[in-house]
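[audit] Reproducing an earlier prediction to check determinism. Same input, same settings, fresh worker. If the tokens differ from the archived copy the diff job will pick it up downstream; this log only records the rerun itself.
[audit] input (341 residues):
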Amino acid sequence: MRPVIQKNGQPHYGLFEGPVDFNHQDFILRNFFGKPVGGLRRRLAFHAFNFLGVRAPGLLAGVAAVDLGYGHLLFAYAHSFSRGTLFSWQARGPGKGKLSFPKNPDEYTITYEKGKNRLLVEKSHADGRLFAAADLGGRFKLLVSAPYGFENQPLRVLNPSEPFRWTFTEKAAPVLPEAVEVVVDGEILAADPREASLVVDWSGGFMRRETNWYWAAFSTAGGGTAAGQPAGANFAALTNESFYAENAFWTPPGRTRVPRVTFSFDVEDLYKPWRVADEKGLVDLTFTPSAERGEKVNALLIKSFFRQFFGVYRGVLRPPGKPRVEIHGVEGFAEFHRALW
């Protein structure tokens, strides 16, 4: 089992294809001038988040938990492309509150329970399982169970966030569930696991104080591709890609890593089509947004500005030495995010 922190207190940067010893407590955090930082300041500097996205024909749903040390955030939504956003929920507060978020990307049980709102996300690489359940005030219910392990070839990399900080991330798509259910106000929106697919994203570490990113992700069990085959992707820019890129797509028979991806969009009108591509021609996609969820926070010590879009991807993925995969219309996510946290 490979540790993420070396004996000298510095990170093991690189690609992790197997289990990790997430010994983040052995990391020596340093300030701007390289002097060690400890105590409360160090504990509050560790951030982690977990996102699970569900795609079914004409539907995107998502649940997320964020532990910022000094505060917590949770959100969930269900968006129908024919009827608009049917449900959106968010909870935040100081400290951890009712959120339990273990700091181990391989084996964890994330829980949140407050009033009539409950969320559970369990992942075990040892058991090869992923499970999630949510009941938010009786209005939104989600159940997902999927085989998930290293055979899914998740992309797991550890990168510097800045000279004295680092972030570990795990991303995978598509993850194909054995069971799925999304219910809003008593209406079943998704129940057939053969038509559903998942996007998985776990990130944790000592992220930089000011963090920015562009993000794009989608997954499909086959619908929306020319050959009816599973496909998924997860791309990012502006953060954590200086050593080992966080970019990859998954098509049969496996993962294709992409060194660097560019995002082209009109900053004055983010509803115009985006282009997501790379210089080698492995990725050439157009994302057309149709709706979004977003937030602006301008507090004394915290600023956040993000716009997460729901839309449709079209284009082509070209795994080297394998047939190209044509994307004719797959629902997915894209995001513009700035944070001072």
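[audit] rerun output stored. Observation attached for the diff report: The chain is about 0% helix and 60% strand.
[audit] end
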